[in-house]
């Protein structure tokens, strides 16, 4: 007997093999005894928010996001506090949320089995209000990371056609281009209403998750469900500063932190000026001039100020039943 439970699948048509995906969804929904899935295609002007709202209006019990990080972010934005869970069908080059949740990246059948027969895990949602250079204000959600400076400039400089062909290698060219940029961010920030502080930096990143592609652990203490952000400020002073950052990220975070002996050795190392970690629930930032900003790997124009805060357990994510 078919259940009254029904899923909606929000998909980016450029990221999926639609015919194969329809067959796989049909098999999993029937195995789980669910009703026929509602299919909703994203558009250039609506990468998922509108489709997720339509799914909620239809009274679905589950929304599956089939696409990259941008599709997942957009769908999650509309699902906030709805209690309707979000399942991930990873596609694209990043899949940062799926990586941080240790979800399967390249197995459609396994991902759909988790969607229809997995369990819910509440995760934090970042909410951000951006004041743009034209003084308009927009509000968005994000699941992985918000960034100003180096990372946002890198994304803005990335050739999208090249990215489609070679994936994350496309960022290498953009990194070289951005590292030639000698402009620094001049930031005044207030963390958890503790008072204003000023800093000159190359980049500031507010993270809900810690891992990036290539097993890079940027925010080693970040947890997706602890109710706080982990923030990193990069402010290298020349070549030595960049070496300090690389040692911290690739050697200490990437190697030493993974073993007990390594963690003991880390305890003897000193913090470096080039890389500062902070934690908090609310961050207000004012910039001396407009700067590029990114959310979960997508550019959101140029910001002159922002306020971001944590919505604890703001969205439910489907994970394997035995996770």
Automatic annotation (TrEMBL):
Gene3D superfamilies: 2.60.200.40, Probable inorganic polyphosphate/atp-NAD kinase, domain 1. PROSITE patterns: DAGK. Keywords: Kinase, Transferase. InterPro entries: ATP-NAD_kinase_N, Diacylglycerol_kinase_cat_dom, Methylgl_synth, NAD/diacylglycerol_kinase_sf, YegS/DAGK_C. It holds the Pfam family DAGK_cat. Residues 2-132 form the DAGKc domain. One of its GO terms (molecular function) is kinase activity. This is Diacylglycerol kinase family protein. It comes from Herbiconiux aconitum.
């Amino acid at each position: 007997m078919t259940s009254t439970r029904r899923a909606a699948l929000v998909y980016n048509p450029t990221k999926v093999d639609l015919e194969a995906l329809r067959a796989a969804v049909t098999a999993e929904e029937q195995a789980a005894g669910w009703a026929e899935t509602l299919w909703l295609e994203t558009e250039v002007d609506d990468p998922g928010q509108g489709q997720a709202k339509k799914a909620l209006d239809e009274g679905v019990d589950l929304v599956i996001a089939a696409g990259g990080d941008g599709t997942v972010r957009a769908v999650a934005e509309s699902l906030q506090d709805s209690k309707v869970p979000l399942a991930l069908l990873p596609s694209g080059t990043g899949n940062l949320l799926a990586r941080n949740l240790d979800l399967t990246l390249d197995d459609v059948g396994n991902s759909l089995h988790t969607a229809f027969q997995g369990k819910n895990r509440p995760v934090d949602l970042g909410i951000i209000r951006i004041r743009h250079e034209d003084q308009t204000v927009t509000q968005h959600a994000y699941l992985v990371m918000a960034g100003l400076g180096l990372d946002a400039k890198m994304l803005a400089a990335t050739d999208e056609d090249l990215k489609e062909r070679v994936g994350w290698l496309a960022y290498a060219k953009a990194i070289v281009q951005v590292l030639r940029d000698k402009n620094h961010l001049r930031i005044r920030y207030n963390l958890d209403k503790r008072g204003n502080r000023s800093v000159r930096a190359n980049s500031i990143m507010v993270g809900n998750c810690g891992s990036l592609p290539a097993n890079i652990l940027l925010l080693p203490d970040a947890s997706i469900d602890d109710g706080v952000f982990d923030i990193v400020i990069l402010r290298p002073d020349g070549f030595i500063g960049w070496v300090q950052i690389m040692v911290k990220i690739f050697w200490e975070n990437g190697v030493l932190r993974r073993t007990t002996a390594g963690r003991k050795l880390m305890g003897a190392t000193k913090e470096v000026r080039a890389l500062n970690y902070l934690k908090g629930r609310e961050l207000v930032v004012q910039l001396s001039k407009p700067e590029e900003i990114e959310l979960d790997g997508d550019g959101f124009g140029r910001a002159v100020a922002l306020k971001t805060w944590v919505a604890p357990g703001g969205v439910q994510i489907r994970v394997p039943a035995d996770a």
